[in-house]
Amino acid sequence: MCSGEPGNGDVLDDVAALVAERNRIDARLARAVRAAELSQAPERDGLASMASWLRGHCRLSGAAAARLVRTGRALEHLPALAEAHDAGLATSEQMAKAAEAVTPERLASAVEQGVDLAVVDAAFTGVAVEQPHADLVAVVQHYLDDLDPDGPEPDPTEGRSLTLARHADGSLSFRGHLDPVGGERLQAALEAHVQADRPAGDGRTRAQRLGDALVQVADNVLAVGSLPTLRGHRPQIAVVIDVEDLVDPAGGPNAGRMGFGATISAARARWLACDGAVSRVVFGPDGAPLDLGRERRLMSRHIRKAAELRDGGCVFAGCGAPTWWCDVHHLVHWIDGGDTSLENSALLCERHHTKVHHGFRVERQPTGTWRTWRPDGTEITTPAPLAPAPRAPAA
């Protein structure tokens, strides 16, 4: 439908109504999240916080879960703005921005300076419901600047950040921010490799040379072996691939699985194997000693490696902890006669290892999937089914 034709106004009215309805739903959600947080409801499912529960059970990203929790907390301190949110006049994005002004530290500072928070709340609300979002951002920042006009010399490490995003093909994008000193250190390290690796006829762009330099810096650090150990092992590049794919001269796309979840071709796995160790792991009686019986209580490095390959991280429902956060747990406790074997083991992070020793239970199914039960015998399902929208009645 072209602009100016009849019906455009109705469509735009529908859009505005839907935005208002979404604002009201977001407000209800934020209040529900806050109520769940205050009642420590995530403990029922073995999790420590609402943010972790939202990530594991509702498939929210870490950033979205944290923002929702912060918004729920802010509703208590900004009642006028919260009421506008309830009415659909203020957005969740506006609430999240205003929440920056009512963190515990800033609330304490406001009390010390005699700030009337009701006045601040009214000012935020007036801007939120009547002016563009950018105006509210400016007003909130102005308030924060007035609240702490001088402030202590900032800790440079507090401003450092790095966000990694893995794509479906296994490639990695990242964005970040460094303070001047940290940025200088990174540039010095990268520039050394950029300038040392400039062969004749090099057609790479500056961005490509910097990318290669960053990978080379990582290679060098991993090769030196000076990084902190993870569960007793040096950090290393790991690829899991069937031996048939490894020796097959064909390319074999997506044949290998790397430690952080990316998949690579068999050809790339063979390339990595040229300068690495190849370990044979067989899940059976003819390979590594996976079953140590009753002679040893502690899991051997063979069992741990096999458990990491099989489980990929903490198996407790709703938890995404990586392998290096995990212990190897006896499903049937050793003291109760359980064998020290792969079949009797599960990877659990420290928190959920403790939970399992205090009434929770995990069990591996014949299909290879894991299930988790609460102490009362009810199952924790993840992700929890999200209620579908009601269907419109048939015409």
Runs in which pLDDT lies below 50 for 5 or more consecutive residues are: 282-298
The main sheet comes to: 3 strands, antiparallel
Shape: globular
Strand-pairing-aware structural class: mainly alpha
Mean pLDDT: 82
Family: Belongs to the Rv1128c/1148c/1588c/1702c/1945/3466 family.
Domain HNH nuclease: 302-354
Organism: Geodermatophilus arenarius
Protein name: DUF222 domain-containing protein
Q: In terms of topology, how is this protein built?
A:
Elements: H1 8-38, H2 50-58, H3 62-77, H4 79-86, H5 92-99, H6 104-112, H7 117-130, H8 133-147, E1 161-166, E2 172-177, H9 180-196, H10 206-224, E3 239-240, H11 243-247, E4 256-258, E5 263-264, H12 266-273, H13 301-311, E6 326-330, E7 345-349, H14 350-356, E8 361-364, E9 370-373, E10 379-380
Helix pairs in contact: 1-3, 2-3, 3-5, 4-7, 7-8, 9-10
Pfam family, one: HNH
Organism: Geodermatophilus arenarius
Domain HNH nuclease: 302-354
